[in-house]
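Consider this one:
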Amino acid sequence: MLDVLNKRIEDKTKDLVALTSALIRIPTINPPGDAYIPCAELIGNRLAKRGFQVEYIRAHDTPGDSDKFPRTNVVARIEGKGPGPVVHFNSHIDVVEVGHGWTVDPFGGEVKDGKVYGRGACDMKGGLAASIIAVEAYIETNPDFRGAIEISGTVDEESGGFGGVAYLASKGLFSKPRVDHVIIPEPLNKDRVCLGHRGVWWAEIETFGTQAHGSMPFLGDSAIRHMGSVLHSFETELYPQLAQKHTDMPVVPEGAKQSTMNINSIHGGESEGGGHGKPEDYTGLPSANVAESCRVILDRRFLIEEDIATVKGEVINILEGLKRDRESFDYAIRDIMEVLPTMTEQDAPVVNAVSDGIRQVLGKEPDYVISPGTYDQKHIARIGHLHDCIAYGPGILDLAHMADEYVGIDDMVASAKVMAQATHALLAGVQT
């Protein structure tokens, strides 16, 4: 039966490539959340023609949701011939901004040299397309399967997933008894099973000053200079501490086996648009002012061995030290997001099923890894309380968010075979 299933997927290679290109051509850039509805409808319309019940779910009142940029998700479900487990494939449809350095059209879905190019090809529209082809091939070769299969295209993973999987999980769509097993086709390489991810803490720090004329800065107090002291303290105190923290988790790549922190953005003083508003309506220069406010966004990634209170305390201790030692220094800190590290047990049913698929399709033992960054497994675990969940999909992790992003066609075909065989194992109850 598996040989027939593999042959069916091979016969669908052109369809797989065409679907991947079609998904890439829809520029679902987040932020702000462009083109979510047409991308969801492309998925929904295709699956509806194949017998799936399709539901479009807008995540009202979640971050970024508006009538202009609705957070619209698609969830499709097909029932088998009798009761049984439910396997769910979840992929996010949003992609990051294009950035610079491209040599191909970022939204062209160009096919050359055995690869499909474009923003989101690797992360993760290639994986989404592979999961759809895998499920279609499985249903075509196993029309009498028992249980149910779901495929979802969800939004906002690149900005935390709150309008996507988090919202759906809060409505019970990622909990038992509705769902038993979840595979997320993130690009972790076709021979790897990703068991989970490091923890994350996002926070905003604001330093305060006093506005004055820029020609007489001594009459004011620069919030930007105060922020400079914060960044200097991070460089001299915090970053050396983080470099000494290492994990036994199988995190990839090697550099992510230590604690890390990124300064995601910095904003200080007036914008070129005037005041503290948006610059769209004005392209001139700011006025000559000493900055009364400066803000940075921290992206702190931490290890399973670390406690979240300690992670936050390391930053707050530096800020409190500056408040004590630096004249007129004051600050505010605001939590944006915190997620604890997540790791599915290596003997979980979905891990065994995908691992067996890798052995059968690729003829090698799978690698078990942890992702350096969080993905939507965090919401399935903490909100849905469903822990039989992993990431597995085609694509090279290091290409995510890069210029000239691509996904290999052979990798998509191989991953589709693994996903189809894992589906069979989970629904038939033959996983080891």
Observations:
- The mean pLDDT is 95.
- Residues 86 and 177 are 9 Å apart (CA to CA).
- The longest strand covers residues 199-208.
